[in-house]
Amino acid sequence: MNAESEKKTLGPGPTPDNLLHAGSEGEFSAEDVVLASGRDITPKNLAWAERRMAEKGSRACLDELLP
Q1: Number of helices (H), then strands (E), in the chain
Q2: Which residue range forms the structural domain that includes residue 40?
Q3: Are 23 and 58 a contacting pair, CB within 8 Å?
Q4: Burial class (CB in 10 A: 0-12, 13-18, 19+), 41
Q5: Is residue 21 assigned to a domain?
Q6: What is the pLDDT of residue 29?
Q7: How many domains does one find in the chain?
């Protein structure tokens, strides 16, 4: 099934598992951490995110912020 046919078969109800993803498979940036925390991207918040990523690691840092 391709993406176009998946779109056509979607209707009311839960989203199929194959369309759900968290995006936590790749690399993360300080901007990602800031946005996941619900903050605006500012130099102060980017510095906070970079410190947090250095202390905890990028994956653990983001996992704590996302449900």
Answers
A1: 4, 0
A2: 27-67
A3: no
A4: exposed
A5: no
A6: 87
A7: 1
